[in-house]
Amino acid sequence: MGLKGKLIASMEVRCGGHSVHDMFHTNIHHIRNISPKLINHFEIHEGEVGKIGAVLCWKYIDDGKEKFLKEEIKNIDPQKKSITWEVIEGDVLELYNFFTIITSNEHQWTTVTFEYEKKTEDTPEPLSFLDYFINVTKDIEGHLLSK
Questions:
Q1: CA separation for the pair 28, 26 (Å, rounded)
Q2: Edge-to-edge strand ranges of the sheet holding 109-118
Q3: Residue 32 carries which DSSP code?
Q4: Neighbouring C-beta atoms of residue 101, cutoff 10 Å
Q5: Partner of 6 at 20 to 30 A CA spacing, among 19, 86, 129, 132?
Q6: How far apart are CA 117 and CA 95, in angstroms?
Q7: Which residues pair with 88 in a beta bridge?
Q8: Closest of 14, 3, 19 to residue 105, by C-alpha
Q9: pLDDT the model gives residue 62
Q10: What is the pLDDT of residues 80-125, one digit of tens each?
Q11: What would the pLDDT profile of 36-56 be if each residue is shown by its tens digit?
């Protein structure tokens, strides 16, 4: 069909991939304070930080507009330092039937993978959301390096 897609971006992080993973895994509630120009609001809707099944809600600025995202942690792999989130509500689901975010961190690298299915052939690739995610990761890196 050609409606399913995958975007992958890797960036070198001077603070170490393990530090970025720790931020996404156990300190995700601090990201709102680290990147206040990109994230307006964060809350844990259900469950506990860093646990499979936790539901997280975000209000964020993407492409100059405030947007909303609710995601559930589906998998955590401590050996690969990866986390899989499934988007269950929000603006991104207006364009995509499903949307999954996977972060993996090793050595000096952080990789984000988006797996998704477009609602129509004309739906654009989620490049602006990928750019947004990279900018949040850069804010995290800057915060960790300043410690």
A1: 6
A2: 4-12, 109-118, 96-106, 82-90, 65-77, 55-62, 39-46
A3: H
A4: 22
A5: 19
A6: 9
A7: none
A8: 19
A9: 84
A10: 999 999 999 999 999 999 999 999 998 899 999 999 999 999 999 9
A11: 999 999 999 999 988 999 999
